[in-house]
Write a structure and sequence with these properties.
With about 350 residues, the chain is α/β, with parallel strands linked by helices. The protein is about 30% helix and about 30% strand. The chain starts with 11 loop residues before the first strand and ends with a strand.
Length: about 350
């Protein structure tokens, strides 16, 4: 599925963790839409990436072990690094910032961003850094932003992600699962609070009336949506249950429920629920989110190229609203109902 936007000038994109569960979906999305972009897929064992390299054709495999010394300059010209792996030492972002290479972060929780932010504030760089450490690399927040436009004032916004245990996940996500149960950041009555996720669970009613427990998660979505909407009550929750896809006897989907309460333009109170269903599963949806951020950084698909040397969020990077019709072509269905 090619997208004719503008001449790419042989852009080179390095995907760290590029042949893992998430990285391989990022690579496939980019290759399908932008066949002229050169891809460098890196990891600790490049031989494991050979089947993907054969599938995609024309990609470069390289070794990158963040636990050992490395220099991004050794990979030649790089226009963008997509970090589809955990980097607790900030080794990759520090290198990208030093060399002026654009960088997309997508694996950190709110409490893991301080060191990155302080490092980038110490000295100038030509790098554009995108903190897309949101759910599905920003897709959930961007759709929620669209849904919020139906209100003149928002009192509460709650986003809940439903993970189906039959939906494949890679080692990186498995490693992260324990952190999902740690302290979580919520906004309640205008005040930010760090609270225990397990002690502040809620009941989430699914599309078919089934109810599951959902616990708050320290994802960037809550802080972004509070800034976007001004809502005094904001939370992001994670739940486990049977997805729409599984209920239909199809492959597991990844479902996101966006519940908003506030005042409509007419002055009347209103409640809406927007249901987002990634029919190809969470890995494909995450990979698409990374590709959308790449479009923003490189100025593709009608997006305006960002100013260099700055830090962006998905909602500040993309100059055009997320296109729900385009998302359908990637298997992401959205619907909104008034409650």
């Amino acid at each position: 599925m090619g997208l004719n936007t503008k001449k790419l000038d042989k852009k080179r994109v390095l995907i760290a963790g590029g042949y893992g569960e998430i990285g391989s979906h990022i690579a496939r999305h980019i290759r399908n839409v932008y066949p002229d972009i050169e891809l460098i897929l890196t990891g600790r064992n490049p031989d494991k990436g050979k089947p993907l390299a054969t599938e995609l054709g024309g990609v470069e495999l390289a070794t990158l072990d963040l636990q050992k010394p490395f220099n991004l300059a050794d990979f030649g010209q790089i226009d963008l690094v997509i970090a589809s792996l955990l980097d607790p030492a900030d080794a990759l972002i520090e290198q990208a910032w030093e060399h002026g290479i654009n960088y997309i972060s997508m694996t950190r929780l709110v409490n893991e961003l301080t060191s990155l932010l302080l490092h980038t504030l110490q000295k100038p760089s030509h790098s554009t850094v995108v903190l897309a450490d949101h759910w599905q690399v920003g897709i959930a927040t961007l759709i929620a932003k669209n849904a919020a436009a139906a209100f003149s004032k928002i009192d509460s916004i709650e986003v809940s992600a439903l993970y189906d245990e039959t939906d494949p996940i890679g080692p990186m996500v498995i490693e992260q699962l324990d952190s999902f149960h740690g302290p979580s950041l919520l906004r309640k009555d205008g005040k930010w609070m760090w609270l225990s996720g397990e002690d502040n669970a809620k009941t989430l009613t699914l599309f078919n009336g089934e109810q599951v427990n959902a616990s708050p998660l320290a994802a960037l979505d809550a802080t972004s949506l509070a800034a976007i909407t001004g809502a005094k009550n904001v939370r992001f929750d994670f739940a486990v249950g049977k997805s729409i896809g599984t209920q239909k006897g199809e492959i597991a989907s990844h479902d996101v429920y966006i519940d908003i309460e506030g005042t409509l333009p007419s002055g009347a109170p209103g409640r809406t629920r927007t249901l987002v269903s990634g029919t190809k599963g969470q890995s494909s949806m995450t990979g698409l989110g990374a590709m959308l951020m790449m479009e923003g950084v490189l100025g593709l698909a009608g997006q305006t190229s960002p100013e260099q040397g700055k830090i962006y969020l998905p909602e500040t990077l993309l100059t055009n609203p997320i296109d729900l019709e385009r998302l359908k072509t990637f298997g992401i269905q959205t619907s909104t109902e008034i409650l």
